[in-house]
Write a structure and sequence with these properties.
Strand content: 35-45%
Helix content: 10-25%
Number of strands: 11
Number of domains: 1
Mean pLDDT: 88
Radius of gyration: 16 Å
Order of helices and strands: HEEEEEEEEHEEEHH
Distance between the termini: 39 Å
Strand order of the largest sheet: 1-2-3-4-11-10-9-6
Low-confidence stretches: none
Structural class: mainly beta
């Protein structure tokens, strides 16, 4: 889906979500994982690819255990400005609910074929991408793998078995708050700043 799909689903006179337009040149691409308390609580996993954030909704959130295969449902591309968005999306707006930045940081594309790095846009189009996250809560390699047919395929988000893998750690439950503001979903919903 294109950025225009993002724009057509939102009434910017009613939602505080960013409209887009920011460009980032010459910097390492970044990832963001936003915790989103909508009709159901989920985590939005986003990777900066070109001028957009490629996005997947991960119902159970990311794991640090390589044995966990987490469903990742593709959503529309989001503008780069969305990487810093925390706030309340009004009821009746697409994806309504409270959003916080659960983790973020730079990432590195580590997808290889025949000893060469595959551009991330191509790797995603082919249905298999590997990235190394350098976040505050998540680090190390993660795979995004499409299963089934391209148009109806499901995606899985899986932690690679590397030095950052930890079968005992569960950051989704032990580190619930924002890495940007330190606030909880409840703090954001109430409009409170954590002191």
């Amino acid at each position: 889906m294109s950025k225009s799909a993002y724009e057509t689903k939102r009434d910017f006179s009613r939602t505080p979500e960013p409209r887009g337009g920011r460009k980032r040149a010459g910097k390492a691409p970044r990832f963001v994982i936003q915790k989103h308390d909508a009709s159901t609580l989920h985590y939005d996993f986003r990777l900066e690819v070109g001028s957009v954030l490629k996005s997947w909704a991960v119902p159970r959130g990311p794991s640090t255990d390589p044995a966990d295969k987490r469903l990742a449902v593709p959503t529309e591309d989001h503008p780069l400005d969305y990487a810093d968005f925390e706030g309340v999306i009004p009821e009746g707006q697409y994806g309504g609910g409270t959003v916080l930045v659960w983790d973020c940081g730079p990432y590195e594309n580590i997808t290889e074929k025949h000893g060469r790095i595959v551009p991330l846009a191509k790797a995603l189009a082919d249905g298999h991408a590997l990235v190394r996250l350098k976040g505050e809560k998540l680090t190390g390699g993660y795979a995004l793998q499409r299963t089934g047919k391209k148009e109806n395929g499901r995606w899985l988000l899986v932690k690679l078995d590397d030095a950052a893998a930890d079968r005992r750690r569960n950051p989704v439950s032990t580190q619930p708050d924002s890495v940007l503001s330190g606030r909880s979903l409840q703090d954001i919903a109430a409009g409170e700043a954590k002191g």
